[in-house]
Amino acid sequence: MKRKVWPTKESIDKQRLVRVFVSSTFQDMHLEREELVKFTFPELRKRCRERHIELTEVDLRWGVTNEQSTEGKVLPLCIAEIDRCRPFFIGILGERYGHVPQSIGEKLLADYPWLKKQKSRSITEIEILHGALEDSEASLSSLFYFRSPDASFQMEERLQKTLGESYQKEPDAHLKRLYDLKQTIRKKADQKMLRLRENFTSPSMLGQWVLEDLWQIIEQVFPYVKPSTEMDKEFWLQEAFAQNRKKIYICRENDLKVLDDHAQGKGKPLVLVGDSGSGKSTLIANWCLKFQQNHPEIPTLVHYIGSTSDSIDLIAMLRRIMETIRQRIEPETDPSTLPIAPDKILEAFPVWLGKASANGRWVIVLDGLNQLEVDEHGFDLKWLPVFIPANIRLIITTLPGPFADSLQARSWQTFHINPMNPSERNKFISSYLAYFGKSLSKKNREQIAHADASKNPLYLRTLLEELRIFGQHDQLNEYIQYYLEAKSVKDLFEKVLRRLEKDFEQKEGCRKMVQRALSYIWASRKGISETELLALLGDGNQPLPQIYWSPLYLALEESLMKKTGLLNFFHNFLRQAVMNRYMPHTDTQNKAHLDLAHFFENQPWSERKIDELPWQYFQAQCWENLKDCITDPRMFESLSSEEKQYELMSYWNKLEPYYDMVTSYQQMVENLEAIKPSPNLLAEILHKTGEFFRLKARYEDAKPLLLKALKIKEECYGKNHAKVADQLHSLGLLFTNLNLMDKSLDFLEQSLKIRTKIYEPNHPKIAESFHSLGSARYHEKDFEKAEKLYLKSLEIKESYYGKNHPEVAISLNNLGLLFSYQDQYDKAKEMINRALAIFLQNYGEHHPKAATIYNSLAIIHSNLKQYREAIDYYIKAIDIFKHIMGHQHPHLAFCINNLGLEYMNQKKYDDAKIYFEEALEIAKANLEENHPYINIISANLEESKGHKNNEDI
Questions:
Q1: What b-and-e string marks burial along 48-61, b requiring 16 or more CB atoms within 10 Å of the CB?
Q2: What b/e readout covers 780-792, taking b as 16+ CB neighbours within 10 angstroms?
Q3: How far is C-alpha 389 from the chain's CA centre?
Q4: pLDDT tens track for 495-516
Q5: pTM, rounded to two decimals
Q6: Cα distances (Å, whole numbers) of residue 786 to 793, 840, 855
Q7: Gap between the Cα atoms of 868 and 301, Å rounded
């Protein structure tokens, strides 16, 4: 006889796993089961994961193959699954008794002798007897629900219409047995041995009852324990994510060996690279479990980036790693000794890695590096030390792309995750469905496993999940064929979207909810908050009730992520599917952007509004709205900041064919003056407008604004105020741009004189003044004075900012150019390469400041007569300047002129002439007629015309 082994509370708590067996008749309970699978259990799963519990429902109404049915394996499977799910059991009954098996296998009767008396019972009754009624211990966590007779009568009418001649009324003998079964359940309920609710009238009512009752039981088994810290809470959520990835895994010994060898070996960090959905997180979760079991003496720290809303925050991640190290090696120290300020955390991180390494071997895994919140200018890896201590066995997973390229550039070891082969896919299909108590026929498994798109685990997992929540066994083959028509992950998600529309857009108030919600996420710049989304989906006066949105969110949870509170797509496959299904044309895409623009237009002033509103108008190609938006004084003041000025410039690059930038901002200033603002506010707007004109090389237009701002500030603050010094400095830079060096030096020296009275000698404002004076002397070709001023500035900046700050890079770049013109090429290259490394770390390679360095490197290579290298650098700089600063900026003219000179050096005069003509056109459009640079370009053009092209070079 097979002995029942009941799980103890301790064993359940240790596994933190809830498996729920759902028992009901088949034909008449399709809608109820669908409600539970699609709505109720996802909500319960979400609640459970917040407590580090994994919930799985087992529903066998499909999943028993024809082969298993023919071989009499249906009942043994049901009995086995009930035992696996103990003590959680749900029984749902209407007015049908269910299928009565013709026989019960001898082995099952030997294992469970009580079945000998149940040979005329239905499978449903046997499930209920075994799962709840035969043992008082089971009853305590058993839930029963009876549908109202009227609702069951309506279902019978529906079945009769649907099935036609094949419809069979329930026999009287079965109805009698059903009555007796219900009476037994009622008696047990009266004795408080199980829980019973009667007369649900709809699937949604049943779903709500199950949600309330099952959650109450789960809360009793797993009482809530509030994490003592936010870090503990993050640990729980990360563990829940890992637990979800551990449950279904097809072992690849070679992949595990690569990780084992690295963790126990030597050498540089290991980078696992794989396409989206290739199973990187699943591999890491399962390998870590095995490695920790085999090597408990080696601390193993895993951070799953993208698993929670906080996990993508770089600073939070680094602090979590440092705190884990502290708890292990310095448990007696106060946690408050760890830094809190972001810059201090970045400084301390390498130190703590060194401390960990000094105490023995550690394994640190950063899973999903591509999900990390990065600087908008590029893929910022400055926080990750190039040198990792030997005892720190670092493993990183990421998608192919910029992150992987940056790590490979460090010569770190790279291992590529290969797609699954058909045999592995077949095993995955069986394992995935078995976890939910289901199986497919060999033919169906082979059909899915050999589909080419199934080599991607995300495709395969998504397809199986769609099959799992599908409840009609007689249509299963047709359903499989329908999904296999999708030849890519994107195509599969389009089919998922169709199913979501059917599931979630039937209720009043939910029309087009799927389309609208996902379109708004698609159209957002960096994502959209749930509060914003509900307001957008509402009726204009009230947001969409959370009760409508939550089920859809839970259905999409695996494909959505939150970054700093904003919902966005976890992978591009869903993004592409949303665009293809809902916004295949430019006009529909523009409408989505315009809807968001109108929404943010009516929101209170906030960083979100600054970030989204102009960008949405830009994407929607609403040029007049964009112009009005960015000429609003408040918006302009925000966008003209150092962090956003290039974004503002990119908007004008698009607008300038339609609107004159200078005229538009002059009108803005006039409108502001008309309402008589405070003098300091007016002066600030005048200053910012003049500075932006200077950035855009509209130097003559900038001059009256900056002079007027100076006059107002002197009247407001007096002539020796810091704000006056800043204004004088801006004017000094402007006159340097205009090549009026006497005026430039006068303003810059006035500014420095005031600053030396206000600030300490090592203040960055003093460094700024020295640097600008150095640039003025450089323009005058007074290299000796320029060098002294540059070096003074550099000394202060390195002392104040440290050696790897962008301000330091600016000084290094200018010193490099200075040394180049003095034929000190080794010193020049050393300086400029240092500057390039700093800028790439801070901004990425597509920022205008990086372009400035490329231009400097080109000049050095040109002076060394390395013309081809110089041309490559000039082209890189030109591409960046065109993209960010537009096609008409003087910086671009300077670069293009220099590129022309390189072709002159190679005696390719026809090519040189084309570049000189382009540079001259840009210079004349932006500089004064008598500007010396126009004369230089013109002379270069004339020289190119006087030579014959040398085709041999």
A1: bbebbbbbbbbbbb
A2: beebeebbebbeb
A3: 29
A4: 999 999 998 887 777 889 999 9
A5: 0.75
A6: 11, 26, 20
A7: 48
